[in-house]
Every structure is written in C-alpha cells, then in structure tokens.
UniProtKB/TrEMBL annotation:
UniProt signal peptide: none
Name this protein carries in UniProt: Replication-associated recombination protein A
Homology family: Belongs to the AAA ATPase family. RarA/MGS1/WRNIP1 subfamily.
SMART domains documented for this protein: AAA
C-alpha cells in the first residue's frame, strides 16, 4: 500500500493518451473506410447481419486494413460474445480454455465469435482443432491472415469458412483517415500538398500506418512550421515503400510482370522483374511464376518455353545470386517475345468442367482392356483397332463415352508451333469423318 502512496502520479490526460490509430478506431461498420465491398450498405457482411446468420470466415488482406476492427464490430452488431487470440502467443492449452468458455456461453444461449489473428501461424494440427467447435456451432471462427489462405490453411478449415478479401487502402481512403485525424486533433497537418501526397504513399495502403505517420509529423512540428517532402522524409525516416512481400505490392508487381509477358512487352517485363529482385523477392518464387506463364500464356505455341523456364530455375539453383538472376531474366525475355497461346489452358478448363458435369461415365467398351472372361463376355475390348496397324497410324475411332458424344476442347490458333498442330488436327478430323461416317 505504501508503495502506491509514494509512487509518482501520472497525469490523467497523459495516462489516457492512447495512440491516434486506437482513438480513431471505427465504432460501427459504417465508419470503416476502404472496405465498402464488405462493410458498405450492400456489402457481404451487411447482408450476413441482415440475414441473422453468420458463418465462419477468413479475413485475408494486408496489415492495417481493418481486419481486427471489423471482426470486433461484427460481433457487436450481431449480438455475439467476442473472444480474441493471436496465433503468435497462443497454444493448444489457450485454445482449450477459449473453447470451454464458448461452450459455457452457448449453454446460456449466447454464441461466441472467436477472432484469431495471424491464424496461418497455427500448424496443421492446431488448425484442425477448430473443426469440431465450428461444426457444432460452439464458435463462429473469424481468422485473420496476411498470407494466401489457399497455401497456408488446411483444406478442411477452408471448406468450412468463407474467405473475405480486405483490400489495401487507396489514397482516397487514406485521405479520409487523415481528415478524421485532423478533426480529432483540431488542427491541420503541417505539410505542403506534395508532402501530404508523399505521406499517403509512405503509408502504402495501411490505415494504421498513415495515422502513425501523422502523429510523428505533429510531434515534430514547431508552431507555424510546415514541412515539404524532403523535410517529411527526414522526420519520419522512411521512404515511400516500393514493395512489401506481405502486402498488395507483392501481388500488384507479380500481376504486372505476368501481364507484361502476356502482352509481349519484354522491356516492361524486365522492369517489373528487376523491381521484384531489388525488393528482395525470392528468385525461386519468380522462377515458379515464369514456369506458370510458360504453360498458361505460351503453351504449345512454343513448347521450348517451358523447357527454358525450367532450365533457368535450375541455373539459378546452380549459380545462386547474383549470377543466377540473369538466367531468370533471360527466361522472362524469351517468354515475352514468344508466340502466345492459351489454347491448352482453355481446353483444360473446359475438359475439367465437362468431367464435373458428366459424372462417372464409362469409356466406350472397345477401348477397355478385358483381362477376364467375364469382361470379354461383356464386350470389353471388342472391335478395338490398333492405330499402328492402320493407314497413317490413325484408326479414327471414337474415344469419348457414348452418352457424351464427341467433344472439342482444344482449338489451337494459327500461331507458332500450334499452326502445325492445327494442320494435323484438321487432317485427322478429315480422316475420322471418312473412316467412321455417321
């Protein structure tokens, strides 16, 4: 007790001086800016609340986009108890306590919204522990992650939760936050117009960051002082970030690289590749993306594209950095200058859709093996013609299930190597019609 008496007293206004980002935290979903596709009048979350039924969700998006705030507001507007844990600091024992508390609440007629920050940091077994309490309605799980859920979360968990994407805040949304901050502080930011625009870029789509930067500016400014862009950079000790592997910059640049390759612009493709190298991107990640471009956008228009991309990946493995980057740059230029075709990509999607729609149809019996007498008696293998024994090594038989009829998925364009493939297919189609008229 005596320790308390003689402890230095902290002025109440200082003790209550919370960070600006915390003080300006939205109080309703309508106050959330930058996520109107979710929280707006016609947004997904609004519709869920109006229906009176919430399901488990995964909030996926960059830091500072409002995932935690939205989860808390969602629980309030839906009348749910709110529990929050972080996968960084929690283990199985913590989860058990939370689940037990949620079960007790449920017995009293109140459901729990469990918000799990950084949910991707839980291992597979820990992620599986959520399944029973999600299925029996003990909790409505809302997990937040900055990483792609498709790669970081269990398929079983994803099948029980809807993924909602939070967008990096654009400059308009960040400007809204700055104006709210100025209203709360009762004064304008002491920045020139160019410096204000620079501060918005420095925030890089992060709402929390833009408010933190604004606080730094106010702390540094003397009465009547105003900062230009150069002074702002000195004060906050931060240049406008070009790229962050955990934020939208990563996805924006890889998208720009992919579309530059698809658009046959080797100069733009090299520029975006160089930006990602400069930002510290994993070269093997870029190698994998180049392989994807080879099979999606070049395909059989130039079959060497895939070979060269795999060779570039192997070359990087062999040479390491920085010499290995040149092999990936070479593959990038090759892809950008290669003839383009997505015919195989399109054909595979169409074939996949047909496989889903038509169920488990039996192939025609004449192309099925008949290892037993029973199968022979059922007509398996009967009438099969061995193509190598036919003229032109082509029998022209029908290989599709009878109930489906013949389908055409692959339609090669008159470009690159696929021009030759198209000629072959047209020739075989002519022979098929002649040898199997119907």
């Amino acid at each position: 007790m005596s320790d308390d008496l003689f402890a230095p007293r902290i002025p109440e206004d200082v003790a209550n001086r919370r960070p600006l980002a915390d003080r300006l935290r939205p109080q309703t979903l309508a106050d959330v800016t930058g996520q109107e596709h979710l929280t707006g009048e016609d947004g997904v979350l609004r519709r869920m609340i109006a229906s009176g039924s919430l399901g488990s969700m995964i909030f996926w998006g960059p830091p500072g986009t409002g995932k935690t705030t939205v989860a808390r507001l969602l629980s309030g507007e839906a009348g749910l108890a709110f529990e929050q844990i972080s996968a960084i600091f929690s283990g199985v024992a913590d989860l058990k306590k939370v689940f037990e508390a949620a079960r007790l609440r449920r017995m009293d007629g109140r459901q729990t919204l469990l918000f799990v920050d950084e949910i991707h940091r839980f291992n597979r077994a820990q992620q599986d522990s959520f399944l029973p309490v999600m299925e029996d309605g003990t909790v409505i799980l809302v997990g937040a992650t900055t990483e792609n859920p498709s790669f970081e979360l269990n398929a079983a968990l994803l099948s029980r939760a809807r993924v909602l994407t939070f967008r990096s805040l654009d400059e308009g949304s960040l400007e809204v936050l700055l104006k709210r901050a100025e209203t709360a502080e009762g004064k304008a930011l002491p920045l020139t117009e160019d410096a204000r625009a620079s501060l918005l870029r420095m925030a890089d789509g992060d709402g929390r960051a833009v408010l933190t930067l604004a606080e730094e500016v106010w702390r540094a400014a003397r009465d009547g002082e105003s900062f230009d862009t150069e002074a702002l950079t000195r004060i906050v000790q931060r240049r406008a970030p070009v790229y962050d592997k955990a934020q939208d910059g990563h996805y924006n640049l890889i998208s720009a690289l992919h579309k530059s390759v698809r658009g046959s612009d080797p100069d733009a493709a090299l520029y975006y590749l160089a930006r990602m190298f400069d930002a510290g991107e994993d070269p093997l990640y870029l190698g994998r993306r180049l392989v994807r471009m080879a099979v999606e956008d070049i395909g059989l228009a130039d079959p060497q594209a895939l070979v060269i991309c795999n060779a570039a990946k192997d070359a990087y493995d062999y040479l390491g950095s920085p010499e290995g980057e040149l092999a990936l740059a070479q593959a990038c230029v090759y892809l950008a200058t290669a003839p383009k075709s997505n015919a195989v990509y399109t054909a595979f999607k169409a074939a996949t859709q047909a496989a889903k729609e038509n169920g488990s149809l039996l192939p025609p019996k004449h192309i099925l093996n008949a290892p037993t007498k029973l199968m022979k008696g059922e007509g398996y293998g009967e009438g099969y013609r061995y193509d190598h024994d036919e003229p032109d090594a082509f029998s022209g038989q029908d290989y599709f299930p009878e109930k489906m009829g013949r389908q055409t998925f692959y339609d090669p364009p008159e470009r690159g190597f696929e021009r030759d493939i198209r000629k072959r297919l047209e020739y075989w189609a002519k022979l098929r019609k002649e040898r199997n008229p119907r």
